[in-house]
Amino acid sequence: MQRKLKYQREADPDWARQVSHRPGCEGLFSCLQCGTCSGACPLSIYMDLSPRRIAALVREGFRRDALSCQTIWLCASCYSCAVHCPRQIHITDLMYSLKREAMRLQLYPRRLPVPVLAQEFHRMVSRRGRSSEFWLVLRLALRTNPLSLLGMVRSGWDLVRAGRLALKRDRIERVDEMRNLVEAGAAR
Amino acid sequence: MTSYGYFPGCSLRGTGVAYEESLLALFRLLERPLQELKDWNCCGATSYMSIDESSAAKGAAPAWPRARPALSDRTCSKTTSSSKRSKES
Q: What is the reported pTM?
């Protein structure tokens, strides 16, 4: 059973300060905890922690809780929270910042397909310059739940027949040039 | 006649192909030809942003300048006007 109590000694206020210096996360400490973001979020009913709770956890410095939750990966970046926030906090930017950190520290939830999709998308675009949906879905399914492909056959076939699913793997002519530009000055 | 530079993006080559069809049909009807940018690359969407922010910004940028020689002098593009505007502000 998961412990719900939090101890102050597990919090890392330095990390919270660091986050608040990242671009887009500056308003973090002005959060009122009014919950408007959670109310405005169309996906909050599916989240394990509401956007308001994320802001509270980050602000107190509960790093692991904020980085290993599903919420940041369920965010569809619709910006509804940022639009409605009375303190003009860029909550979506905060979500993305947490996503990248969770990815870097390998803290993303293992059973969720969204982080894997991001990885596979990144890989495909870096290598070929474009994404091709058929191959993206195929690689995603093979890495998460290969059996789910069986359930997709029917709709996949319908999409192919309607000309909406290209089976060709697209690739730009000057991939090297694009890669040079993307990797220029990369400090990772 | 003025023609317009056009960036379809990966979606219009996949499940969003219907939007490309109607867009091209509309511009044919308006007699304003759309000229697809040569050798455009993916804009990165939101998935690229989840991995690396600076690469996402740099990846979205070359989609335009790399394609520039493909466009004639008389070609206008929404991209140029919007990038000029962002420089001014």
A: 0.82
